Amino acid sequence: MSEDESMANSEPKTTDVPAPPEADPMSEGERRDQSPHGRLGRLRFKKKDMPGGLWLKCESCDQTIYRKELEEKGFVCPACDFHFTLPGKQRIERVIDPGTWEEKWAEIEALDRLDFKDTVPYAEKIRRTVEKTGQKEALIAGTGSIEGREVVMAVLDFRFMGGSMGEVVGEKISLAAELATRMKRPLVIFTSSGGARMHEGMLSLMQMAKTSAALANFNDAGGFSICVMTNPTTGGVTASFASVCDLTLAEPGALIGFAGPRVIATTIKQELPRGFQRAEFLMSKGQLDLIVDRRDMRSTLALLIDYARR
Ligand SMILES: [Zn+2]
């Protein structure tokens, strides 16, 4: 299973004009082209390039977009509505009512139990990622309100090692489900992930069972959960907590799958259908409940929470 941050990427292709550091694409490894339309199926790897510029190219429609305009539109392509991956903190700002967010368990950090060495030792990689992102792990969890509805929310941040799930992500999802049970609040999860974190070996795969069990307990206790899969949601995250909530939503064009399309195409030796593993494709196969435009996300979540209360 080839997972982790090399699985996928939705950061914009950039021009050579310098941009703020938060626009920095994934820092490690090669990244996969994942255009939802034209280029799907013939995936292309490329080396890390320079930070984002004033202008960038939409990877779905190739349109050149002014970064400012993209930001104003919530990182949705003005030409084709492609939803770019959002950093976790921005996601929280867009969904949670101002002044209500209270982060939990921010201090939990990854342990390098296997003393794992890649091209860069895992411990060093973590250290650098913490420095770059200003957060200790890929999952940000906490409590807050969505249009006045009190929730527990957990958001995977793709900038942190591809939103990969190691022990900490698994633990925080479980803690969030337990907190939601105690507080009798809905649990809202946003995912964007390359899958299990290979640097933690079997311990990361075990989080699939752990998070699924935590959500099952939450469900048994009468809890209501919503997962919003955003671009990209893949590997062990798709195969565990992202897929077992009461409602499974997705953003338009999001790549959602377990193994990547290239692995599947090579294995079954067949050309994959158009739009394979995109939100719209999954919706047409009954794998999703709803595709929600980012700009309607807050009001839609509020509405769904109201339905669940009735
Ligand atoms: Zn576009």
Could you describe the 3D structure shown?
Helix content is 30%, strand content 17%. The chain is α/β, with parallel strands linked by helices and 310 residues long. It has two domains: 4-72, no CATH class; 88-309, 2-enoyl-CoA Hydratase, Chain A, domain 1. It starts with 12 loop residues before the first strand and ends with a helix. It has helices spanning 67-72, 88-95, 122-133, 167-183, 201-220, 235-238, 261-268, 279-284, 297-309; strands spanning 13-14, 31-32, 45-46, 55-57, 64-66, 102-104, 139-146, 149-156, 187-193, 225-233, 247-250, 290-291. It is built from nine helices and twelve strands. The protein binds zinc ion (ZN). Zinc ion (ZN) binds at residues 58, 60-61, 63, 77, 79-80, 82. Zinc ion binds at residues 58, 60-61, 63, 77, 79-80, 82.
Structure summarized in a few sentences:
The protein is α/β, with parallel strands linked by helices and 310 residues long. 30% of the residues lie in helices and 17% in strands.
How many domains? The number is 2
* Averaged pLDDT: 86
Order of helices and strands: EEEEEHHEHEEHEHEHEHHEH
User: Into which percent range does the helicity of residues fall?
Assistant: 25-40%
Task: Indicate the low-confidence ranges by residue numbers.
Answer: 1-51
CATH superfamily of the largest domain: 2-enoyl-CoA Hydratase, Chain A, domain 1
**Structure ligands:** zinc ion
Which fold name corresponds to the CATH topology of the largest domain? 2-enoyl-CoA Hydratase, Chain A, domain 1
Using only C-alpha atoms, the radius of gyration works out to 18 Å
Q: Which descriptor suits the 3D outline? A: globular
Number of strands: 12
